[in-house]
Amino acid sequence: MANQRNLRVAEQIRQELAGILMREMKDPRVVGVTFTAVDVTSDLEHAKVWFTVFGADHEAARQGLTRASGFLRSELSHRMSLRTVPKLNFVHDASVERGAYLSELIDQAVAEDRKHHQDEE
To answer: What is the DSSP string of 54-101?
Structure first.
């Protein structure tokens, strides 16, 4: 189980990465990327960074983020007071897109149900 310090570090990494991405990154592959979660190992050597991207290729976004990981770690080292900044591993988080898809299916079912009731009347 993660201790409180690791949870705080993970959340700060997520917030700092979002700020860096918004203000400092110029790579068009990472436009529209949102960081959803960060998991850090107990020794703070590695961080798994979950991201989602709307309307774009998530594999291209992952490649862009991976390519910029050295720059991102360097920026994190300036913004956070850690002895070592974790190595960043980027993983696509499909849960947001799955949720949007399920919501769309529910909306379609409700619309069909309404149409069916109107036809009966």
So the answer is: SSS-HHHHHHHHHHTHHHHHHHHHHHS--SSPPEEEEEE--HHHHHHH
pTM value > 0.85? no
Whole-number pLDDT of residue 2? 63
Indicate the burial class of 79 (C-beta count within 10 angstroms; 0-12, 13-18, 19 or more).
middle
Q: What pLDDT, in 10s, does the model give residues 89-113? A: 999 988 777 777 888 888 888 888 8
Query: What is the greatest pairwise CA distance in the chain?
Result: 71
What is residue 29's DSSP assignment? G
Q: Which residue has the tokens 């769309």?
A: 104
DSSP3 helix / strand / coil % (the chain, rounded to 5): 60, 20, 25
Convert the pLDDT of each residue in 39-59 to its tens digit. 999 999 999 999 998 777 889
CATH of 4-93, one of 3.40.50.2300, 3.40.30.10, 3.40.50.2000, 3.30.300.20: 3.30.300.20
